User: Fold these one by one.
Assistant:
Number 1:
Amino acid sequence: MAELIAEGVERVPGAMARLRTVPRVAPVTQTAAPAIPPEGAPYAELRDLESCAGLALGSPTRFGNMAAPLKHFLDGTSSFWLKGTLAGKPACVFTSTASMHGGQETTLLSMMLPLLHHGMLIVGLPYTQAELNATRTGGTPYGASHFAGLADDLPVSDAERALCLAQGRRLAEVALKLAR
């Protein structure tokens, strides 16, 4: 989903996407994640938030909430909150669940809360996006979502794909308008 949203961002002339992830939270405090992940996107750093023109924030759903590693990362942004660093920047959220009714919308809302406290401008998906009315899998006006199945074996559906691309485009368009 992150790659699809990034593709949607990059379909807007003048926009560029950077993919980042967050390290896992270890139950043993002496265990540290490597400075660079062994595969996939680099770990997000606070300076990534500071330098971004817009933010697409995603997390798998954990009991109707964002996953602990993302919450841990966001909890470390209070210095930005104090300075208003992220105020006025556009942001969107996306998620994936193992079950159809596994808390997609509550997870999206839980990710919005810290963004709203930072003064970020939430960019959702309007119902003018035809796939939002037709999807039988994921997709909400709060943000893109994916129904992955209990075994995490269901591919992103055509509707989910279209909504991810649309969400990336909307985020980039808003970010570029605000930059003018």
Number 2:
Amino acid sequence: MLELKVRKIGNSLGVVLPKEAVSRLQAQEGDRLFLVDGPDGAYRLTPYDPSFEKKMKKAEDIMRRYRNTLHALSR
């Protein structure tokens, strides 16, 4: 378990992630991280955008249904 300390950053509050956490998240400066609701009201910090995942599932469904049409259009 890593302990984070809430600090004042300008007019906001923030936390500084230790190297171990940044490495595990495979994050770099400027990357976006998402704080999503987890089970039992807990939060989860992740580099993956859950809304993007939903959009990709829809896109994959469309590509699967219209595979022949998309293949013909690619010619």
